[in-house]
Amino acid sequence: MKWKKQDIQQYVQSKEYIDTAIIPLVPFSLDRSDEELATLSYQNEVMELFSDRLEKEYKGRIFRLPSYSYIKSSSLEQERERLNLFYEEISKQPFKYVFWLTFDSRWKKYEKGLEGHLLWVPVMKEGDLNNEETRKLMLDQLEQVTDLIKSYWSE
Predict the structure, then answer these.
(1) Mean pLDDT, to the nearest integer, of 69-78?
(2) How many other C-beta atoms are found inside a 10 Å radius of the C-beta of residue 63?
């Protein structure tokens, strides 16, 4: 389920079955080189596709909340505190599992003290998202992430 009116209406009727929230973490900046802007926008595009695919695979169990955007140069320690406030808000619903999904490896240093579970996925090199090789790589990563999520579910 996604943050859309139709999905929310469905969620309200069956929230006892939807025990997992996924929130993509997306860096944002306009104060970078043109090349870096292109890289950040590509990563955002891939994250949207990746998290949508994850939600689609487990529709009825996973709720994909809106992406959390943060300034690339901001303090991740402060962002962690904001995410913990976000987590408090999410906890008002019956989600048993909350996953923060990111391509930004810097988050690994701030994982301790972060409520929920951080899922860091190595970012794919820039390429054509319609390219077969790029799609295969994304599917391979998606499989690894779903295996990890399922391991939390089976605890």
Answers:
(1) 94
(2) 25
3 state DSSP class of 97: strand
Q: Which residues contact 119 (CB under 8 A, 6 or more apart)?
A: 99, 100, 101, 102, 145, 148, 149
Residue 63 bridge partners (DSSP): 21
Task: Report the percentage of the chain scoring pLDDT > 90.
Answer: 62
> Could you state, in order of their start, the residue ranges of all structural domains in the chain?
5-153
Q: Please report the pLDDT score of residue 129 as a whole number.
A: 67
Q: Which of 81, 71, 83 is nearest to 117 (CA)?
A: 83
Please report which residue ranges of the chain form alpha helices under DSSP H: 5-14, 34-57, 76-90, 132-153
- Per-residue pLDDT at 24: 98
The pLDDT tens digits for 90-116 are 999 999 999 999 999 999 999 999 999
CATH 3.30.420 fits 5-153, yes or no: no
Which residue type sits at 126?
Answer: E
* Residue 116 backbone zone (phi > 0: left; psi -120 to 50: alpha; other: beta): left
CB 100 within 8 A of CB 83: yes
Looking at residue 37, its amino acid is L
In this prediction the pTM is: 0.91
